[in-house]
Each structure stands twice: as C-alpha cells, then as structure tokens.
Amino acid sequence: MAPTQADQILELARRQRLLKAADVRARGWSPQLLLKLHQAGKLQRAARGLYSLPDAQPTEHQTLIEVCHRVPKAVVCLLSALQFHGIGTQLPHEVWIALPEGTQTPAIDYPPLRIVRLRGDAGTAGIETAVEQGSPIRVYGIAKTVTDCFKFRHKIGLDVALEALRDAWRSRRLGMDEVTHFARINRVETVMRPYLEALVA
Q1: Whole-angstrom distance, CA of residue 30 vs CA of residue 52
Q2: Inter-CA distances, 186 with 54, 106, 120, 178, Å
Q3: Which candidate, 120, 145, 116, places its Cα nearest to that of 130?
Q4: For residue 85, is pLDDT > 90?
Q5: How many C-beta neighbours within 10 Å does residue 127 have?
Q6: Cα–Cα distance between 191 and 195 in angstroms, integer?
Q7: Cis amide prior to 112 (ω within 30 degrees)
Q8: Burial of 91: CB neighbours in 10 Å, binned 0-12, 13-18, 19+
Q9: Rg of the chain taking only CA atoms, in angstroms
C-alpha cells in the first residue's frame, strides 16, 4: 500500500527534525495535515510554526536551527557563532544573528535575539551552511566571526574579540591570509594589525 501524505510528512519529520508549512507545501502536500497530526499527538509544536516528532531529542544547536527556520535571512554571528565553532568561553543568553540592512525585525518571542545589521560583503562573505539532523544552520565561518568580533568590539567587548583571536589561532583553525581577507572586508585591518603582529612575533 502506498504511503499516505501523513505518513510521508512523519517520515520527513524523522529525517529533518523540524518541519514548517513551507516544507510540506514544497512537496505538494497539504499544510493542514501538520495541524491534524499535531492534534492527533503524532507531531508536537517545537515553536510557533515549527513541528517535530514527540520523541525527537533536542540537538545541541536546537535554538539555532529554530531561528534559521523562522528567519531565513538570518546568519548566526558573533557570540553565537563563537559558541557554535567551540571558540572561547562565551555562553550567550541570546541568539546573535546578522540580517541585511533594511530587513524587517523578526517578531520572535523566544529564543531572545540580538540583531546586528550588515551591508554588502560584510553581510554576504564568509557564510557557511552546516546541516544538523537534516536542518540547515547558516553561520559565519571562524575567520569572519573573529573579524566581526573586532568590528563589533564596542558591543561585545575587546576582551572577547582578543580571546576569540587567540583561541582560534592557538587551535590552528585560523590562517593569517584568511583573517586578513575578512579584516579588510570588515574594515578592521588597522585595529587588528598590532594583535596579529603579536601572534606571529
């Protein structure tokens, strides 16, 4: 017997953990089935407009997955990107995201967001897409994140930026050419130069 649309939706939920109406609609299925499966106890509401299987274990980056689902233009940045890459000791209470200038502020109650606005290459360069349990997380790479920390040092603190630079350099996850490239894009070459020179001295 051919699987029903409901069966196919549940199978998709198994593969990618979080579902929204657009995922279902894109496959030609009825988004109303999400509500019916929720009412029948076969899906749970993970967040507004997001559904998962009732027994789905939350992943380490569950909140980042939810934010990227609900704010498609968001890129995880700064403290949240450092935490994602395992650099430094920051444990942010909010999800830090970058949005293009002029983008409407998302109406999300939870998780709390800290939004920075970027334009041009400063917003589009260095984006990586990590796929976790079938769900994409758009996040700036390590070199871009470190230079972002210097760009936004007045928001997060110069000590955080320096810790990120030292930690990424010591763990050999940062190349000088790469960090210089993103420092130029972020216009923080002059600010970073003495710290970079100290690293290689």
Answers
A1: 17
A2: 43, 25, 10, 12
A3: 145
A4: yes
A5: 15
A6: 8
A7: no
A8: exposed
A9: 20
Specify the pLDDT at position 2.
65
Residue 143's closest CA among 114, 113, 172?
Answer: 172
For residue 36 the two structure tokens come to: 């019916």
Shortest CA distance to 93 belongs to which of 81, 75, 111?
111
Long-range contacts of 41-45 (CB under 8 A, 24+ apart): 42/6, 42/10, 43/9, 43/10, 43/13, 43/19
Helices 78-85 & 158-170 angle (0-180, nearest 10): 20
Domain boundaries of the chain, sorted by first residue: 5-52, 62-200
pLDDT (0 to 100) of residue 12: 82
What is the distance between the alpha carbons of residues 42 and 52, in angstroms, rounded to a whole number?
9
Enter the CATH code of domain 5-52: 1.10.10
State yes or no: pLDDT of 160 exceeds 80: yes
CATH class name, domain 62-200? alpha beta
- The pLDDT, as a whole number, for residue 174 is 92
